[in-house]
tRNA uridine-5-carboxymethylaminomethyl(34) synthesis GTPase MnmE
Amino acid sequence: MEDTIVALSSGALPAGVAVVRVSGPAARRVAERLAGTLPEPRRASLRRIRDEAGAMLDRGLVLFFPGPNSATGDDLAEFHLHGGRATVARFVEAATSLPGLRLAEAGEFTRRAFVNGRIDLTEAEGLSDLLAAETERQRRAALLQAEGGSRRLFEDWGTRLLHARALIEASFDFSDEGDVGEGVDAGVRAEVAVLAAEIDAHLSGAARGEILREGFRVAIAGPPNAGKSSLLNALARREVAIVTPVPGTTRDVLEVTLDLAGLPVRLFDTAGLRETADPIEAIGVKRARETMERADLVLWLDAADSAETEAAAMLHVKQSGPGEPRPTLRVRSKADLAAAAPVGAYDLAISVRTGAGLDALLAALAARADAAAGAADALPLQARHRAALVETRRALADFARAPDLLPEVAAEILREAADRLGRLTGRTDVEDLLGVIFSRFCIGK
Ligand SMILES: Nc1nc2c(ncn2[C@@H]2O[C@H](COP(=O)(O)OP(=O)(O)OP(=O)(O)O)[C@@H](O)[C@H]2O)c(=O)[nH]1
Ligand SMILES: [K+]
Ligand SMILES: [Mg+2]
C-alpha cells in the first residue's frame, strides 16, 4: 500500500498560521488519532490536537477531504496550527511516530495529484511556476497553465492526431486487401496540415514565453563615463555599481531586475566600450559586447559632455557583435550638462543628477518589454513544451512531405507525433487509440 505522507505546506516559520497536510490511505486514521474526531468532509472545525500519549499539542482547525476528490486524489487531512517552529516540529514528530506515516519528499503532494490523474504534467508545471511567480504577468501565465490551459490545447491536438490516425488505420485494418497502399486520404492530409499550422503559431510565441520566464534583457552600454553605472544605481534605487569620474571604472557585468509592466526587466551595467591596453578592462569590454549581443534591447548612453560624435557612437553599436544589430534605444545622458540637450538624434534625454527623463525612460522600457512579451493572456510556452512540439512538428513535416506514403507508414508517423504530445501531458496511452477506433467504426457488430 502507498505511504501516507505529512508535511508543512505553508511558508517559513514563525507565521500566524501553519498548514500541515497529511495525504494517503492512513490520513483518516492519523487525523482521528491526533484530532479525536473529524469534522464532516470539507468543513473546518476547531479541535484540540493531542499527541500519541494524549498530551495537548495545539488547538487548531482541522479539515478532511476524502479521496478521490481532494487536491492529491488521496484522502487528505489539513491541520491549521499556530505557526511556531516548536509547535509544527512537535506535531510532525507526533504524526510520523504513527504507523504508515512518513515525511513527504519535495513535490510529493503534487506528484500524487499527477499519479492519481487530478492534474497533468503541464498543470503541475503551472503550479510550480505559480509558486515561483514574482511579477503580475508571470502570475497570470502560470495560473492559466495551472488551470489547464496548455493541457486543453495539447489534448485537443492529440485527439485530432488520434482521429487522423484512426481514419488511416481503418483504411488498412478494415478494407479489402486490394485497397491497401492507395496513399492517405486528402481530407486527412488537410486536417493534419491545419494542425501543423496551429502548432507553428504556438511555437512562434517561444521568444515571448522566454521573456516572461527569463526576463526582458536590457544592456546599458556606451562609451566610458557615459553615466551607465549611475543610471543603474538610480533605477535600482541602491548603490549596486561603483561610480567614479575615472573612465573604465566598471569591468564586471552587474545585473539588477526591475518589475515593469508586470514583467521582469533585467538591466545589465557594462564596461564602457573603447580600445584599451589594460588587460582587465579589455575583458570587461569583451563581456560588455557579449552582453549586448544577448540583450533584447540595448540602452545606448552617450553623455551630453562627451566628445564622441554621433557617428562614432553608432560605430560602437555596429562593432558590438557579429550578429544582427540589437534593437537600440539611444539615450542622451547627463542632459544637465548641456544648455539644450540635442534630443533629435536620440530617443530620450536623461540626467541622473536632476532625475530628468528617468520616468520617461522607465516608461519606454516598460513599453518595449510589454511589446516583446506579446499578448497578456497568451498561454506560456516552456522549454520542455517547445522541445516536444518541435519534435511533433518534425513528424508532421515527414507526413506532409510524402503524399504517397503507405497508410501503414503514415499511421506510424502520426503515432510518433501523438506520442510526443502525450509525453507533454504525461498521458500517452494506447487505450485511447483503441477507444477512438472502436467507437468510430462499430467493431462490435
Ligand atoms: N552632471 C552629471 N554627471 C553625471 C551624471 N551621471 C553620472 N555622472 C557622473 O559621471 C561620472 C561617470 O559616471 P559613471 O556612472 O561611473 O559612468 P559609467 O558610464 O558607468 O563609466 P564606466 O563604468 O567607467 O564606463 C561620475 O563622476 C558621475 O557622477 C549626470 O546625469 N549628470
Ligand atoms: K566611470
Ligand atoms: Mg560604470
